[in-house]
Amino acid sequence: MQISENAVVSMHYTLTDDQGQQLDSSIGQEPLVFLSGAQNIIDGLDKAIQGKVAGDKLNVEVAPADGYGEVHQELIQKVPHENFQGVDDIQVGMQFMAQTPGGQQPVTVIGVEEDGVMLDGNHPLAGKTLNFDVEIVDVREALAEELEHGHVHGEGGHHH
C-alpha cells in the first residue's frame, strides 16, 4: 500500500541539522507511527513521503516554512529576574511555561543578563532546515476510529 492521506505510517527516522548534528532518532527504538495528513508530523516530511511504500528509504530536506516555521523576533524578549521567583540559578537552555495573552506558551532561556532574562518563545527548531533519513517500515489503512480521533490507536499509537 502506498502512503496517502489517512494512511497509518510506521517509519524509522534520523533527524540532523545542516551541520550534520543529530537532533533526534527512532533507531534502536520502536518506529514512529502516525496518521498521514492529520498534522501528526511536520507538513514538509508528511508531503515528502506521499506515494512511498514499506521498505522505501529516502532523504528529505525540510525548509523552515514546511517545518517549525521561521524565527519570529517578536517572540524574543527580555523579562525581569523577578518573574522567576523560586528559581535560584537561571541558565541558558532552561525551559519554562509563560503566561501570554494567548494562553500558556513554552519559552527557552537564551541569555541571562544583569538587567533581565532573554526568553525565546519560538519552537527550538524554528528557522532551521531539517534533514531526515527515513525508512518506511509499514503502511496500512486507518481504522474509522483513528480517522475520527485524528491519530493512531494501538501499538505505537495512542491508547484510550
What do you see in this structure?
This protein has 160 residues and is mainly beta. It has two domains: 86 residues, Chitinase A, domain 3 (Roll), CATH 3.10.50; 48 residues, Thrombin, subunit H, CATH 2.40.10. Helices cover 8% and strands 39% of the residues. The protein contains two helices and nine strands, in the order E-E-E-H-E-E-E-E-E-E-H. Strand 6 and strand 7 form a beta hairpin. The longest helix has 6 residues. 17% of the residues are buried.
What are its keywords?
160 residues, mainly beta, Chitinase A, domain 3, Thrombin, subunit H, 2 domains, five-stranded antiparallel sheet, 2 helices
Task: Spell out the blueprint of helices and strands.
Elements (H helix, E strand, L loop, with lengths): L6 E10 L5 E4 L6 E4 L7 H6 L8 E6 L13 E4 L15 E6 L2 E11 L2 E5 L9 E12 L2 H6 L11
The low-confidence parts are none
How many domains comprise the coordinates? 2
Shape: elongated
* Name of the CATH architecture of the largest domain: Roll
Using the CA coordinates, give the radius of gyration: 19 Å
How confident is the prediction overall: mean pLDDT?
Answer: 93
Sequence of secondary-structure elements: EEEHEEEEEEH
**Overall strand count:** 9
Number of helices: 2
In CATH, the topology of the largest domain is named Chitinase A, domain 3
Give the CA-CA distance, first to last residue: 27 Å
Q: What is the class of the largest domain in the CATH system?
A: Alpha Beta
User: How would you characterize the largest beta sheet?
Assistant: 5 strands, antiparallel
Question: Pairing-aware structural class of the strands and helices?
Answer: mainly beta
Name the helicity range.
under 10%
Amount of beta strand: 35-45%
